[in-house]
Backbone:
């Protein structure tokens, strides 16, 4: 009789190390999507001068937990939509959470900011 050596073949796929980047959230106005700005330093191939390059990535944020100015870690993933190819891994540092007054007023009542500007125009006309 012939003996067969049992080899253990793992059914799980080998773990793929995906590209990760760290950047700052610049927009969170979409549902479950944020826009992250990633800065990198490049060196000019001829002049050897270092310059800063900024790229924007659309990132999947499942729980809508990111705010503007948060520093986040993102990871490459399968395409989730036309532009989204990255997903949120973690929030490295929370931002200040301070929202500009103009945005708060625009959310409360869009006509409020228009009536204030017209009132200022009337005062200056007098």
Residues:
């Amino acid at each position: 009789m012939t003996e067969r050596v049992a080899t253990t073949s793992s059914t799980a796929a080998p773990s793929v190390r995906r590209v990760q980047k760290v950047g700052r959230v610049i927009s969170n106005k979409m549902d479950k999507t944020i826009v992250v700005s990633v800065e990198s330093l490049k060196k000019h191939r001829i002049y050897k001068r270092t310059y800063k390059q900024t790229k924007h990535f659309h990132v999947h944020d499942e729980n809508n937990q990111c705010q503007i100015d948060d520093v986040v870690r993102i990871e490459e993933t399968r395409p989730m939509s036309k532009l989204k190819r990255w997903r949120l891994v973690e929030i490295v540092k929370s931002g200040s959470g301070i929202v500009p007054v103009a945005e708060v007023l625009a959310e409360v009542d869009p006509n409020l900011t228009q009536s204030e500007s017209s009132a200022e125009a009337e005062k200056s006309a007098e």
Summary: The longest helix spans residues 110-125. The chain has a mean pLDDT of 84.
